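If your schedule permits, I should be very grateful for your opinion on a structural question. Please examine both parts with care and let me know of anything in them that strikes you as inconsistent. The record follows directly beneath this note:
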Amino acid sequence: MSEIFLDTETTGLSFKEGHKIVEIACIETEDLIPTNKIFHKLINPLRDVPEEAFKVHGYNEEFLSTKETFEQISDEFIDFIKNKKIIIHNASFDLGFLNGELSKINKTTMKNSEVVDSLEVARNKFPGTSNSLDALCKRFNIDLTRRSKHNALLDCELLREVYINLLGAKEPKFNLSSTSPNLNGSNLINGKETYNKKILTISDVESENHKSFLKSEIKKNFY
């Protein structure tokens, strides 16, 4: 199943108070494995950026004035998220802005039923503790050194790692073998273990060559 990890940055805390989106990022995954499809836009909010918001994400009015407006990127955004499971941390915040922007340009709004709020998942799993994205990254030992300021695309990447840990799942791996060997070197065939270990012998010449290599190439044994 396709999922979308989504995050936004804004000029303030509420669309109803006149604040707008300045950045949208979406990362697509398939069964939580990245597909390398990304939607990422910086947006001209057509208003000023308060100092408090600038300190959070680092985007000022002059920088954003050359970017596209939400209306200009809206169709591409809608197509990208269509018919996919959407995962957002603190979904009520982002949906408030996204649906406010969509309503303003007469576009279909996003439904709560289409969205998984990872904050609610975290609160159910860890009640009574801080469940911010930063706090969850620290809980799961996820590297935060790249996060000097809030950045929607980076936060999507961090959220994917957090969400996998919240589900108690391991990072998805590819299985390239139809029969997986046990750690002891055996395979199960018809419920029975069969061993394919083979003892190989080397010639005297190979043995002498190996000894010569150790003497000439390995200068010091650090262990």
Q: What stands out?
A: The chain has a mean pLDDT of 85. Residues 147 and 154 are 8 Å apart (CA to CA). The chain has eight helices and seven strands.
